[in-house]
Amino acid sequence: MLKRLPRPATLLVTALLPASLTLAACGSSDEELKGFDAVSVSGDVGEAPKIDWKGTLAPGDATSKVIAKGDGDEVAKDDVVLLNFTIANGYTHKVNYSTYVDDDHDYNVGSLVKVGAKAEPQSVADLLTQSLVSEIKPGTTVGTRIAVTVGSDKLLEDYIGNSTVQQAMASMDIGNEDGLLIVADVAALAGPAGTAQKAPAWAPKIVEKDGVPASLDFKGAPAPSGDLEVATLVKGTGPVVKSGQKILASYLGQIPKGKKPFDESYSDGRGLEAVVGGDAASVVKGWSQGLVGLPVGSRVLLQIPPKLGYGNKAQGKDIPANSTLYFVVDILDVADVEPAPEPSETASPSGSPSGSPSGSATGSPSSTPSE
Length: 371
What we know:
The protein is mostly beta strands. It folds into two domains: 8-189, Chitinase A, domain 3 (Roll); 194-335, Chitinase A, domain 3. The chain contains five helices and 19 strands. The chain has helices spanning 8-15, 124-133, 152-155, 163-171, 285-291; strands at 32-33, 39-42, 50-53, 56-57, 63-68, 80-89, 94-98, 111-114, 145-151, 179-189, 194-196, 205-209, 212-217, 229-236, 245-254, 263-264, 272-276, 299-304, 325-335. Strands 11, 14, 15, 16, 17, 18 and 19 form a seven-stranded antiparallel β-sheet that branches. Strands 5, 6, 7, 8, 9 and 10 form a six-stranded antiparallel β-sheet that branches. Strands 1-4 form a two-stranded parallel ribbon. The longest helix is centred in the middle third of the chain and has 10 residues, at 124-133. Residues 244-335 form the PPIase FKBP-type domain. Residues 1-24 form the signal peptide. Residues 337-371 are annotated as: Disordered.
């Protein structure tokens, strides 16, 4: 089965749904306190925050606090930044979700945020961090740590009754009226970081707009070779991607005769979370074969022949059958995939749901028929 590149809404929501549980209120006997009267946050930026609970965090409107100001570059409007973040429940005093690598949480990649942009949440992760996004303003410096307290009822009030959101909250043991603490580090400006390398002769030119890839120019480029071609345009310095891991990436895809990209994530700053390599790969084979073994921080140009792409089946009006695919991919983060839970007698036979918070499918289909 050849698999088409899914949109991040499906991937991110799926990543947040390790099991099917029943939504329920949580319990605590501590004194109920408001905002940061209930909790203090410490620890080094870049590492999982240390959270000291003083009582039960009462649900309520969002309150924010800068825990530490970074000494990195200032971000500007429309910059895309990489966040690492933790979501903790002020009722159970447990960490519900974290993108930091430690003994307990090493299965989640970071998240991308476009500074100053107002975007409809495309995933449950987007919903959980939306009160934080407004705190990352132009002038915020890389390395800054920000914390927000907010009630789950306030955070998710526009999605009451949405089954995908309800199941996601249940899977993370978040009740309908729990106080939540969200702590995030502005880790970096999203983009390639490493040593630039010369493009090979087969590579089309990358046309940029506002400093990010906007299209590919095939003028003067040779006809596709029929083989998988991989050009590392920037060699990153981060950890190397292993088969079966998931990555966070920005990307652009175009065919040689295409007047514009058939899909891209740079313009709106969204990130794609995808498993590359192994039986659980969620992208076309050319992505898995081309990206495994490359370090985080790399910008890669892929030429993918039909047999490693979408095969002899057309994909809508933009990708005819037997198309060679060209992708620009920035590898921004990597993490292991969490082992699947042991099946239980009460587990739903349909498995975990997926999709956008609105419940409607958007963007490209997630798979194509086999060749």
